[in-house]
Amino acid sequence: MALTRKGNSIVNKYSYNENPDKVEDDWINDYKLQNSDFDITDVDKELAEKIPSPLEMGEVYQRLINDTLDSKEDYVDGIIRVYNNEICDTIDNYNCSAFYEPSYVLARAYQSGGF
User: Fold this and answer.
1) What residue numbers bound the domain in which 61 lies?
2) d(CA 12, CA 21)
3) In sequence order, what are the residues at sequence separation of 6 or more whose Cβ sits closer than 8 angstroms to the Cβ of residue 110?
4) pLDDT for residue 69
5) Are the CB atoms for 105 and 111 separated by under 8 Å?
6) Looking at the structure, do residues 94 and 51 belong to the same domain, yes or no?
7) What is the maximum span of the chain, computed from C-alpha positions, in angstroms?
8) What angle do CA 105, 51, 2 make, to 5 degrees?
9) For residue 64, how many other CB atoms are within 10 A of its CB?
10) Based on the domain organization, do 100 and 50 belong to the same domain?
11) For residue 1, what pLDDT is reported?
12) Are residues 48 and 30 part of one domain?
């Protein structure tokens, strides 16, 4: 796996100068990631004038993972748990405003099973 445990820490097995395409291929294989036909940019322009950048969405998900992380759970498990939750369908739907909600609202929606 690309991320491994070392004591109580999660470490990346790749160095900074590793070929990014190889890292991407390894992650796809290691975590059994699959392509989809979902088009994240297919939005109603009247409802969503600006699509958030990947960095902005990464920040949304990072806060949600941190806000819902269990004390016995490591960060990788938190990532997998959140990304496999149905709330992602709502957060990634830019025709609604879920991705703009404050982190405590997203965490509460996650914990209660939806908005």
Assistant:
1) 44-115
2) 16
3) 64, 67, 68, 82, 85, 87
4) 92
5) no
6) yes
7) 50
8) 75
9) 22
10) yes
11) 47
12) no
pLDDT at 32: 81
Domain count, the chain: 2
Give yes or no for a contact between 2 and 14, defined as CB atoms under 8 angstroms apart. Answer: yes
Decide if pLDDT at 104 tops 70. Answer: yes
Which pLDDT score, from 0 to 100, does residue 67 have?
A: 95
Residue 20 sits in the same domain as residue 57: no
The length of the chain in residues reads: 115
- CA distances 88 to 71, 107, 108, Å, are 22, 12, 14
Q: Give the helix/strand (H/E) hosting 12.
A: strand 9-12
Tokens representing 78 are 């938190």
| pLDDT tens digit sequence for 40-97 | 778 888 877 888 888 999 999 999 999 999 888 888 888 889 988 999 989 988 888 8
Q: Are residues 85 and 115 in the same domain?
A: yes
Note whether 57 and 16 are same-domain residues: no
Report which residue type is found at 75. Answer: Y
* Prediction pTM value: 0.67
Tokens representing residue 82 in the block? 């959140």
